[in-house]
Amino acid sequence: MTPEEFRRYGREVVDWVAGYWERVESLPVMSRAEPGEVRAALPAHPPETGEPFEALLADLDRVVVPGLTHWQHPSFFAYFSANASGPAVLADLLSSGLGVQGMLWATSPAATELETHVLDWLAELLGLPERFSSAGAGGGVIQDTASTAALVATLAALHRASGGEAGRAGVGSGRWTAYASAEAHSSVLKAVRMAGLGDAALRAVDVDPGTLAMRPEALRAAVETDLAAGMVPALVVATVGTTSTTAVDPVPAIGALCREHGMWLHVDAAYAGAAAVCPELRWTHEGVGEFADSYCMDPHKWLLTNFDCDAFWVADRAALLGAMSVLPEYLRNETSESGAVIDYRDWHPQLGRRFRALKLWAVLRWYGAEGLRAHVRGHVALAQELAAAVDADPRFELMAPHPLSLVCFRLATGDDEADDRGNAEMLRRLNASGALHLTHTRVRGRHTLRLAIGSPRTERRHVLAAWRRVQETATELAHGTA
Amino acid sequence: MTPEEFRRYGREVVDWVAGYWERVESLPVMSRAEPGEVRAALPAHPPETGEPFEALLADLDRVVVPGLTHWQHPSFFAYFSANASGPAVLADLLSSGLGVQGMLWATSPAATELETHVLDWLAELLGLPERFSSAGAGGGVIQDTASTAALVATLAALHRASGGEAGRAGVGSGRWTAYASAEAHSSVLKAVRMAGLGDAALRAVDVDPGTLAMRPEALRAAVETDLAAGMVPALVVATVGTTSTTAVDPVPAIGALCREHGMWLHVDAAYAGAAAVCPELRWTHEGVGEFADSYCMDPHKWLLTNFDCDAFWVADRAALLGAMSVLPEYLRNETSESGAVIDYRDWHPQLGRRFRALKLWAVLRWYGAEGLRAHVRGHVALAQELAAAVDADPRFELMAPHPLSLVCFRLATGDDEADDRGNAEMLRRLNASGALHLTHTRVRGRHTLRLAIGSPRTERRHVLAAWRRVQETATELAHGTA
Predict the structure, then answer these.
(1) pTM for the full model?
(2) How far apart are CA B139 and CA A50, in angstroms?
(3) Looking at chain A from residue 368 to 387, which residues have their Cβ under 8 Å from any Cβ of chain B?
(4) Which of A2, A4, A6, A324 to mutate to test the interface with B (most CBs of B within 10 A)?
(5) Are B296 and B273 in contact (CB under 8 A)?
(6) Closest by alpha carbon to A288, among A307, A275, A301?
(7) Splitting chain A (482 residues) into consecutive groups of 10 residues, what average pLDDT does each group show?
(8) Measured between CB atoms, does B6 come within 8 Å of chain A?
């Protein structure tokens, strides 16, 4: 494709994306495709001869779009949002066009330095302490996702706890233990498993039945039981904003226990981290600055940066580098050996790395601190209004605290089993309507609906319409109508 | 940013990228930035108020571009290329704009089905066997990089070898062993370490001093020694096209040994895999179809697809799913439980995943099989012409076979130590010139220059100019001129 062709098709694609954002509200949120339907519309074999770009764009509309669940739809309330924004998407296009690799400082110095710089900026915006800044012993790096952050934190924790022996000789059997609340994200279990400890090494610590946050006394009991059995507690993952309900683990108490026993504290604030741009929500991060050895949050969830972009910080990069560094001859270079620069390949599992700092830089500059705060505050206010409406309807029950932009609720008649079926059926009908998309979880064992607000396109009218539809569906169910 | 603003700035960014591609040849290939120079040009604190997009574009030119090493420059001959192309970059922009997540089939069916489909297409283009196709027990998935593919292959191998015990109870101590040639990529060691086995579990198998490919008899000896010592050989990584010299391990003999001992065979063809689009180069993949349990190649290296895109296939997805699956309540859904669909979150470490199949689809359609073959053949022909020129200059020595698009050579006067210094100085001068960028390796212990051809912008004139400059620099060095 010549630069001139790129200009022409580039304009078409930009227009296509802008048009998609304008019309996405008119599309059914959740795809109605049946398994195999998309593939059936595609040729069985790849083309022998090249095709015009127009053919791709035609198939995008014909085959792909009907098979999508529209995450950028203003009535997408499922999971947590993965919100894109104009400045992020355009800066990501610049990154694709530049096509540089930032695995070493030397392979493109600006890719490394801009990343270090914007993560210092972001740390400042979130109120994270000096310890995480690159000016000291710590620093930030962009990981792809919070799952990878959890893996890297686990490896760094094992490195520190073993004095490097885990990396040299392996993790050995049955000694290391890790802890997270029973409500922690599945990526913690996956990280512990991938690191070779096995699922059995992760203790699911009890939560408070009301707040659904980790009970520090339960953590203490688990750690002491393990110590008595000759285990070596190495890692605690505290969650600020669980996936299920946005519960906030009590980091100060957890952190004090970690310090007492020399355990690595990783704080997973994948979704809720963005809230810390607002001073009035920064209570969610209490203890992080004092106690966390590592911390992550996802700008690709609630901070207007398109996927993937997980911001990960460590307080002391020595353990991280010790865990992750491998140095072959073909990557040796003078600047790296001088120690004056950061080589980010030693900060994550991959070697190659995209210039992702550009999109985060674009977001922080386009919106500014004020814009980011307004974005988060708007969603939190909508969630509080929704929660009040749920609370005011006697047919429904709020299932968990809702300090941020997720509201968990269910129809509750008092017959738990029947209600589980009723809520599942309500969810099925709501999603089948195409008008909105919610997902579910289990809270204290009961089927619960989650309505997560996070799209920059979501306005008050979308939340009110969603709630009206939930109420109407509840009425239909009560009357036995389809 | 409104859709209208996105259209306006989008056009500017598209023009910027097209203009960058047009002028990149005029820029020094390797950045001349000093450590800290880029950061010093940036404000110390993030902006409180949003800034216009023009400010970002201005700083892109002022601060970022001078700090880049230009991987898309036609005279970038370092590492392996990471070649972007117009159709890939535009399809990736579509992916950013759509902003969907493909972690489950249900979260956007088209994202999953298109990925499965184009990986079947690509398997066909590479001549990979039915075993890797999604129609049978195998299938393909896009990983970010070959490093992650190596990690996933290691975890699947351990799952199979342990009957699932590794994932449940951990890898234990000192039993599992893995094997790769002494020339294998550093990511294999990193994978083995991350999986909890420790560096000591990886055997660096001797290579043939001429071909630099793994010696199957050395592998057999290593495996038998380990078996006799009570170890459990679980994984062999064979490389098709090593990073250092593009050596091709003898997969048929290695595969037969793997089968004999029940070891998982992962074939890493990160760079060289693209060569298999050409029937005349498919000898490099001999044995892969018959013996490999998993295989990967990087379309982001030599197949015109911008980073990141590693294509990874398994012959039997059961071990992979066994190793990687974790199922929390909030991801449960009817379609997944029906077993009728693929949920790619169980195929890699991360949960969230970008719609990367779009860019690979665009590349396969825009270029067609013919275009991809012409792309690879052009580079291979240039490398052969260069190698002949090196061979014809008595001051230089070809250091390794060069069947693909990498040529390894060095100045050789007969005094090895002095020549090591001379080649290092030659490399320094070449890179400092700004006219081209090479990197080095060690071949049989000796400092060796690598000239890797892989950019779609590289023409014959760029390779000839590079070689002329190498010759001139050798002359300067011989005469002691600066």
Answers:
(1) 0.97
(2) 25
(3) 368-371
(4) A6
(5) yes
(6) A275
(7) 97 98 97 96 98 98 97 97 95 98 95 98 96 92 97 98 95 91 96 97 98 98 98 98 98 98 98 98 97 98 97 94 84 73 94 97 98 98 98 98 98 95 97 97 97 96 98 94 66
(8) yes
